[in-house]
Design brief:
Blueprint: H1 2-16, E1 18-19, E2 22-23, H2 24-48, H3 52-55, H4 59-69, H5 85-89, H6 94-112, H7 119-139, H8 143-146, H9 161-172, H10 178-181
Antiparallel strand pairs: 1-2
Length: 199
């Protein structure tokens, strides 16, 4: 017991001894508080940039792809469930979300320098932008689609014969992913003439 009291006394002296001007205890507690404030601020900013309001705050998105989304079943449907921009373009898992946010910094750069600030510029870049997004979804096995649509929950008997056959063949038994067949599901397709393999 005496040894424990001695060790606690030494520990307390170390924490309260000034490190030039501030004690180690103050620096430890201060560092912890600063870390909590930083982490809270970081997550608040992350969530604020993960909303449809934020995504459509620039006219490039609002006037082009968002206006197209409004005409699709992902925006208005019988069930009343709406897919927002982040639902389809930002993964839900934290590490994947951070990686996607870092990729999105290039989109902010494009907005600053006016890469697609007019409808004509947007249409000129549309195939390249769509291809980039299709490749991203292909590489992550349509992760964002699968956040809402799961193969396990699919009742193929409720689908039309063509859809049921395709889902069984490609998704459940095959090696295709959602985006292979569902390009243009939420936004208009770009001009696909000259794209290899497009029918």
């Amino acid at each position: 017991m005496r040894k424990l009291i001695y060790l606690l006394k030494i520990f307390w002296q170390t924490l309260t001894r000034p490190a030039v001007h501030l004690s180690l205890g103050f620096l430890t507690v201060g560092g912890f508080v600063a870390g909590v404030l930083f982490w809270g601020g970081f997550n608040t900013a992350l969530e604020a940039t993960n909303t449809e309001t934020f995504c459509t705050s620039c006219h490039e998105m609002r006037d082009n792809v968002f206006s197209e989304l409004k005409t699709t079943v992902h925006f208005s449907n019988a069930s009343g469930v709406r897919a927002t921009c982040p639902d389809c373009h930002v993964p839900h898992n934290w590490t994947d979300k951070i990686a996607r946010k870092m990729q999105a910094s290039k989109e902010v750069w494009g907005a600053i320098f006016g890469t697609i600030n007019t409808r004509d510029k947007f249409l000129d870049e549309r195939l390249r932008l769509a291809s980039h997004e299709w490749n991203r979804l292909k590489s992550n096995d349509s992760l964002e689609c699968r956040n809402c649509h799961s193969e396990e929950s699919m009742d193929l008997t409720m689908q039309g014969p063509r859809a049921a056959e395709a889902h069984k063949k490609f998704l459940i038994e095959g090696d295709k992913t959602c985006i292979d067949c569902h390009k243009g599901i939420a936004h208009q397709l770009p001009d696909m003439s000259g794209v290899e393999g497009w029918h």
